[in-house]
Amino acid sequence: MITNIRLKRNQTIRLTNGKTATVVGKLGEGGQGIVYRVQMDDSGEEKALKWYFATKLKDANKFYKHLDQNIRKGAPSHYFVWPQALTEKIENTFGYIMDIYPKEYQGFPRFLNGKVSFASAAAMVNSGLQIVTAFKELHNQGWNYQDLNDGNFSIEPRMGKVLICDNDNVMGHGEHSGVLGKARYMAPETVRGEREPDKHTDRFSLAVVLFMLFMNSHPLEGKKTNVAALTSKYERRFFGESPLFIYDSKDASNRPIPGLHNGAIARWKYFPSFFREAFCKSFSQESLLKTEGRLLEQQWIGILIRLKSSLVKCPHCGDEIFLESNQAMNCPNCGKELKAVGYIKLPKRASVEMTVPIIGGAHLYRYQIDESAENFDAEIATVLEKPGKFGLKNDAGESWTITAPNGKSAVKQPGDTAVIGIGFRIDFGHGSVGEIIQNK
């Protein structure tokens, strides 16, 4: 009979690389096993040891070889808290060594239950960008995650920095771990038993995680899913057979319930229309039932950079808001109407429209003028505002050419500020030309 082995304090564990570690204490326990705090005997450095319950391993030898392969290949990027070393087997089970999260990182569920909050809206957007970037790098290197859910992330709330854990089920494209995923995060076709997890189902789960990050609610849980107990029968129906987005544009029967889904109700209106439309597309019936229209990671990056560019302070109350570029809106805090005089229209990025509202404090990011840019925090321009006049400060480290509607041009060096108006064109280099469009 297979039994689950629990490690003891001060127990020495041998690793396959010849090193040893001593158990210091327990960090946490989950469905697959226990995570212990250990001290590496050669260096004194503290690490985490994930130790599996033998009863949870369907094919222990196959999984052991899989972990060994992933350790040898190494992490796809620095966002992943990757397995570093395997333990030798003790009877019928084993574990692996990984880094411990820095103490300032908080589990994603703590953000969802309100125990932890982001220091700013910018930090929240940064965390979304880092999550999407991590999965872009994962997929580009031939991996898929297969078990993407809220328990995979720890986030530093001040700047929105992200670390991703539980990477033991990561597989190469076309390979399957046997783990289908966590209920409420699995793609509907996987719930229905029509498809094994892969990068396409990852992209659905990614959209769920992003919705929960920004809206603090599940995208498919509304009036129709409000049942006494979410049994496996209901999970199959609501998340596989008959899923319906809570803000579906054609069917309002699953709208969020006041008092139960307050996050979605409060936050949905806080975001600009293009961001809401991205979720409407991600959770359309075509996506849910036919797997069509799911956004690629590169598209999410463009959308989130545009969202970041729309983050300004309300001129009436000073609250942080996401301002629509090309239409009027009401400040979610003070309720007063806001409308930018115009916007900078830039070339599309991964088929995503790129705009920056003309209002004091709005920023232009390097990715918006250079699609090859990998630093999504790099600000290259700031909109400056004086009564009746707007300027664009060049923080790019390279010159621009500004052309007025009458055809006159001027070169603006780094540090210069260009006075801008309707109809002006700005050549940022990198084949990127922006045009100032007036709002009607």
List the SSEs and their pairings.
Blueprint: E1 12-14, E2 20-29, E3 33-40, E4 46-52, H1 60-73, E5 85-86, E6 95-98, E7 106-107, H2 108-112, H3 121-140, E8 143-144, E9 153-156, E10 161-164, E11 171-172, H4 188-191, H5 199-215, H6 232-241, H7 262-268, H8 273-282, H9 285-290, H10 297-309, E12 311-313, E13 320-322, E14 329-330, E15 337-338, E16 342-349, E17 352-357, E18 363-365, H11 366-369, E19 379-386, E20 389-394, E21 400-403, E22 409-412, E23 417-420, E24 425-429, E25 432-438
Antiparallel strand pairs: 1-2, 2-3, 3-4, 4-6, 5-6, 7-9, 8-11, 9-10, 12-13, 14-15, 16-17, 16-25, 18-19, 19-20, 20-23, 21-22, 21-24, 24-25
Helix pairs in contact: 3-5, 3-10
Describe this structure as you would to a colleague.
This protein is an alpha+beta fold and about 450 residues long. Helix content is about 25%, strand content about 25%. It has a six-stranded antiparallel sheet with strand order 1-2-3-4-6-5, with helices on one face. A six-stranded antiparallel sheet has the order 17-16-25-24-21-22. β2 and β3 form a beta hairpin. α3 (about 120-140) packs antiparallel against α5 (about 200-215) and α3 packs antiparallel against α10. The longest helix has 20 residues, at about 120-140. It starts with 11 loop residues before the first strand and ends with a strand.
